[in-house]
Amino acid sequence: MSTPFSKLPAWADYGLIPLINLAVAFLVAGLVVLLVGENPLRAAGILFEGAFGSGQNIAYTLYYATNFIFTGLAVAVAFHAGLFNIGGEGQAYISGLGVALVALSLDSVLPWWLTFPLGILGAAATGALWAFIPAVLQAKRGSHIVITTIMFNFIAASVMVYMLVDVLKPLGSMAPQTRDLLPGGQLPKMNWLLEAMGMSVRSAPLNISFLLALVMAVFVWALIWRTRLGYEIRTFGFSPKAARYAGIGEAKIIIVTMMISGALAGMMALNPIMGDQHRMALDFVAGAGFVGIAVALMGRSHPVGIVPAAILFGMLYQGGAELAFEMPNISRDMIVIIQGLVILFAGALEHMFRPAVQTIFASFSPRSVGVAAVKGEGV
């Protein structure tokens, strides 16, 4: 008798499957490292040491992870409504205007602890408005959200070039960036937290926007699984026909969900602008919007999975820089290949090992996967 289809336990579905995919991705990456003439085990050690070997390295890893938490949550919220928001890059980019305009206007008159919440509102509002247009086009005109959000990434890039070159650039400056923010527009660093644990941190960009990212992860969990709106979002994502039959407005869910997604992506701008660079420059997002797609896929669109997935990609960014320095044969392009393999197995090939795992669980413990044992079998 063939093994019936079965649903895995939550710990296996959200923990075991991603770990298997990740392990396979690193095994394949190890083969790539071997092909260029380097020791994969030594490379893995350097990668891990570069990400977590000191307080300084941990601070950088968490700084990068902060960006990916915001963008991963943004993609996850849209996923739950059955929407594929590929516009996180543009939404985060254009939200730099919301952050910068608030900080540039108020950094000389307000302390950071007042500028920060206003910057959050500016970033969230700008990101939500940038996502609003593709959402309306999908809800009212039937335009596919994937196509419109991709297009809006390029529009955002063009708008930012114009604003930084012709509008916000200080007189006499050649660099396409705003003036430096005054202390009232700069977020305090969190190096003290690692130093309190006995770690040495010389200078790292980790700042309190990391705490905001964790708060947003809790917010997304509460929104999706503890509110009526979240239930409607999940219902619509699971079956639009059932949602319509239940009286859930399709246009409302699409627009509201995309605006929440855009707001979360927009908050990412706080980390580099107010927390690190203390100015807005070209391409400050640096691909975090696209990495957020992989983070959401690997985290199974759940905040509990998104946070460690974001830290993993933060490790690849920070540890990858150390690896490229220590092993000249492994260039930055090789690090991108490793990241791509993680994305491949965590995303496109996410279901590769699921049937085999389901078969094993159904064979050894039918009740654990919701399959009633057949009389005469398993005894």
What does this structure look like?
The protein has 379 residues and is mainly alpha-helical. It has a domain at 69-320. 70% of the residues lie in helices and 0% in strands. The chain is built from 16 helices and no strands. It has helices at residues 10-35, 40-52, 55-80, 88-106, 112-141, 145-167, 191-196, 209-226, 228-238, 240-245, 250-267, 270-277, 288-298, 303-326, 332-348, 354-364. The longest helix is centred in the middle third of the chain and has 30 residues, at 112-141. It starts with 9 loop residues before the first helix and ends in a 15-residue tail after the last helix.
- Residues in β-strands, percent: under 5%
Question: Structural class of the secondary structure composition?
Answer: mainly alpha
Main sheet attributes: strand count, strand direction, barrel closure: none
Question: How are helices and strands ordered from N to C?
Answer: HHHHHHHHHHHHHHHH
Number of helices: 16
- Give helix % range: over 70%
* Poorly predicted residue ranges: 1-5, 373-379
Seen as an oligomer or otherwise, the chain set is single chain
Number of DSSP E strands: 0
Distance between the termini: 15 Å
The shape, in one word, is globular
